Amino acid sequence: MKHETDGTRADRVGQVQITFTDKQLTAWGGACSVVAKFLERIRFREWVLAHVPIEETSPNAKGIYEKVLALLLTSLTGGTRFSHVTWWSHGMEGLKACFGVTWLPQATSVLTRFFGKFQQGHNERLRTAAAGLVRQLIEAERITEDTLMLDSTVCERYGVQEGARKGYNPKKPGRPSHHPLKAGLGSGYVVNLWNRRGDTHTAHQCVVFYAQTREGLPSSMRIRWVLADSGFGEEGFLEHLEGKSQPYAIALRLTAYVQQAIRAIGDWKTLEAGLEVAEVVVALSSWKQARRLVVIRQHVPTRPKASGKQPMLFRELEEHRDYRYSVLVTNDTALAPEEIWRTYRPRANEENAIKELKEGYGWHEFNVRSFWGTEAAMLLIGMVCYNLVHHLNRCVLKTAEEGVARLKTLRLKVLAIPAIYGSGGRRPTLRLGVQDRSLRAKLRYWLQRIHRLALRLFNCNAVALPAPAKA
Questions:
Q1: pLDDT band with cut points at 50, 70 and 90 for residue 9
Q2: Is the dihedral of CA 37, 41, 43, 44 positive or negative?
Q3: What is the DSSP secondary-structure string of 96-137?
Q4: Measured in whole angstroms, how far is the alpha carbon of residue 385 from the centre of its chain?
């Protein structure tokens, strides 16, 4: 059989001929328009050049902003590691023109070498700058009170990374990991992040973490509640919050002493079928004083999807075997037990935020050999990129009847719009491939709202900024 080289058969799909074009096409026209306009409006380039504390002295250095922008674009377009920097590289001229740069990284080593330069001191400065950024976003929305939620998570590591140790890892026991701490607000903003060794206990330095978090928030902001997972239920942390007169509700592990307290309860209040609540004041063995515990139990046969845990001992006891239990410790003495439980329930949103960071932004997978380089990438994605997208979502893309969309949804509906970059009327032009009139109207409306934003991340003219990178 004659080999086809003229494109008459092999390069066809049905009656459609397959060919190529040299035009500047990109699959990320939405990112080139909406995200680029947003970053330009808030002066993100100036913020990066003023606050990312890496100095490049090589005459061949291309620019810090371009590398940070490449990390953000990789995360926004679905990348989960530095090698995915090539995912969005088609239509590079259009990307560079829209984001106002003359060069963008196209090799993995450019980013890994850059993050390998970060040290502990750099990260402290970067964390302070990121906290200042989220403070500006909070003030721009005029959020004067909120709930502070603390949590920890596990990031599995494959390969050789500094700080990767075997520790608490319920999904993959024995796998080396990092054990980060995260602080978020009920409004959805991430206000602090620490990366830590995998064998670090959750409560290690939690008082310092909390104090640093509060210091980064607006001074006039009132924290109604501190909600945290069971890793924070340690005497030192509880004493610190009580000394600050800060209301809290924190989950407790079902230790033997907690189980004894549950078994002593005789009066349960039914909230609905299969859901009961009670309270007891006890002094656990590791506590210096008695504290109020709120106990929630759910009847598994009635509520098959019941949350909570069933201790091994309870499985042998007839009056407890069909229930799952959750226990909260609180310093509030006024609210009824069911109100304490309802106050704590929104903390599940913190679990969703961590899930969004991991599944949407690939936050936990951008890592290099250096521990501090890995933390720097986590800070830029988790406290800069995430918060900027969250603010864009809440203040521009969201309508009154819609909730805040996840990044996966934004990626499909807003960012991934095919576009052609060229010229029109002697002006550089990005032509978005949108036929739906309602989507065209939405895009125009979003761009107008971005143009009217008063937020500026960088307003100081006294700081000398590096010159833009040369091609």
A1: confident
A2: negative
A3: HHHHT-S----SHHHHHHHHTT--HHHHHHHHHHHHHHHHHH
A4: 8
| DSSP 8-state secondary structure symbol assigned to residue 61 | -
Rounded to the nearest 10 degrees, the angle between the axes of helix 64-76 and helix 44-51 is: 120
The answer to whether residue 469 scores a pLDDT higher than 70 is no
Distance CA 16, CA 2 (A): 21
| CA angle in degrees (0–180, nearest 5) for 370-372-374 | 70
In the DSSP assignment, the letter for residue 417 is: -
- Which residues on neighbouring strands pair with residue 299, listed in sequence order? 323
Cβ atoms within 10 A of the Cβ of 186, count? 19
**3-state secondary structure (DSSP) of residue 376:** helix
Q: Which residue type is seen at 11?
A: D
CA distances in angstroms from 13 to 22, 67, 103, listed in the order given: 21, 40, 37
Alpha helices in 380-453 (DSSP H): 386-392, 407-410, 437-451
Q: Does residue 104 contact residue 72 with C-beta atoms inside 8 Å?
A: no
| Distance of alpha carbon 124 from alpha carbon 135, whole angstroms | 16
Beta-ladder partners of 291:
282
Q: Mind listing the pLDDT tens digit for each residue in 146-174?
A: 999 999 999 999 988 999 999 888 888 88
Torsion over CA: 349, 355, 358, 360 (sign): negative
Q: What average pLDDT is seen over the chain?
A: 90
Residues 301/322, Cβ–Cβ less than 8 Å: yes
What mean pLDDT do residues 403-416 have? 90
* 8 Å CB contact between 347 and 332: no
Mean pLDDT for the stretch of residues 371-375: 96
- CA dist., res. 344 & res. 129, Å (int): 30
- In one letter, which amino acid is 341? W
Structure tokens at 459: 């307003």
- pLDDT per residue over 426-440, tens digit each? 899 999 999 999 999
Q: Where are the beta strands (DSSP E) in 172-245?
A: 177-178, 181-185, 190-194, 222-228
Is-contact 420 25, C-beta < 8 A? yes
pLDDT of residue 399: 56
Q: What is the pTM of this model?
A: 0.90
User: What is residue 403's predicted lDDT score, i.e. its pLDDT?
Assistant: 67
Residue 154 backbone phi and psi in degrees, to 5: -120, 130
